[in-house]
Write a structure and sequence with these properties.
GO terms for molecular function: copper ion binding; oxidoreductase activity. With about 300 residues, this protein is an all-beta fold. The chain has 1 helix and 23 strands. The strands form 4 sheets. Strands 1, 11, 13, 15, 17, 18, 19 and 21 form an 8-stranded mixed sheet that branches. Strands 2, 3, 4, 6, 8 and 12 form a 6-stranded mixed sheet that branches. A 5-stranded mixed sheet has the order 14-23-22-16-20, with no helix packed on it.
């Protein structure tokens, strides 16, 4: 079972064999740190949106309800879908969802198991940087050999109203047209507010990483080596897999890594760009940082 810490899985109902999901695009206030909120756009009350999990061969209907004060759409990043369902209304014959309306995206999952994303594809320069995106994972119920399966969306935000080097409780607007990023998140939270990963010694752990932002993130795990097993939802053949302690996730990419949790301890897992390990450039550590806690069996 896939887990996306601090972000729930999106439930579905089954109608005549079709898995039916609902995403609600709406203004969202997301708690980055205790008492510190950013005001942006999200799905179902959160940034990033809830994680969608399906399987190969599923027929899906995803109803997207637009409660934003502007038009929007949804693109299924990395999925092979019909042209009319791809979600780029400026170019394709695909829905442009008016405020107060909804659109149904219907398609069959033809991709193999893998890690993907969904995000707005209308005025992305603003809407995507306001937070409109989420994880889309194609699972495999028959897979063996993975004990724990975690997924993270990596994002960065320019949160206005806080003087550089200071923090304070309150709600602050996102400036989507600024590249002065001061908060770097894993599943919409910053360290130390990001939930740690709890695993047992001897478990095989997979971490799925997706980058929806504008900057690359070299993600570094302490204590063990990671094996890179997939890129953009596509398996890497075993003879091409590399063992590494740092995995670079470029904008628009997803990467899967796995490791054997043989080494007990509380191990940092973080972006290795120093400024991305800060909350509005304050001390101590923050930002795109969490821990993997390996408990002795």
């Amino acid at each position: 079972m896939v887990e996306s810490p601090d972000v729930p899985l999106l439930p579905y109902t089954l109608h005549h064999g079709v898995k039916c999901f609902e995403l609600v695009a709406q203004p969202v206030s997301r708690e980055l740190l205790p008492g510190l909120f950013m005001q942006g756009y999200g799905y179902n009350g959160m940034i990033p949106g809830p994680t969608i999990v399906v399987e190969p061969g599923d027929e899906v209907r995803i109803r997207v309800v637009n409660l934003l004060p502007e038009k929007t759409s949804v693109h299924w990043h990395g999925l092979d879908v019909p042209n009319a369902m791809d979600g780029v209304p400026d170019i394709e014959p695909t829905p442009l969802i008016q405020p107060g309306r909804y659109a149904d995206y219907r398609f069959r999952i033809v991709n193999p198991p893998g890690t993907h994303m969904y995000h707005t594809h209308y005025e992305t320069i603003r809407q995507e940087m306001m937070g409109l995106g989420g994880l889309f994972i194609i699972g495999d119920r028959h897979e063996r050999g993975i004990d724990r399966d975690f997924a993270y969306m990596l994002q960065e935000f320019a949160v206005a109203g806080l003087p550089k080097g200071q923090l304070g409780p309150g709600a602050y607007a996102i400036d989507p047209l600024s590249d002065g990023f001061n908060f770097f998140t894993m599943n919409g939270r910053c360290f130390p507010h990001a939930s740690p990963l709890h695993v047992r010694q001897g478990e095989t752990v997979r971490i799925r990483l997706a980058n929806l932002g504008m900057q690359g993130h070299p993600m570094h795990l302490h204590g063990v080596q990671m094996l890179e097993t997939a890129c953009d939802g596509n398996d890497i053949p075993p003879w091409n897999r590399q063992r590494r302690s740092t995995i670079f996730v470029a904008p628009g990419e997803t990467r899967d890594v796995r490791f054997l949790a043989w080494n007990p301890g509380n191990w940092p897992f973080h972006c290795h760009i120093p400024h991305h390990n800060a909350n509005n450039f304050t001390l101590p550590a923050g930002g795109m940082f969490t821990t993997v806690r390996v408990r002795r069996t």
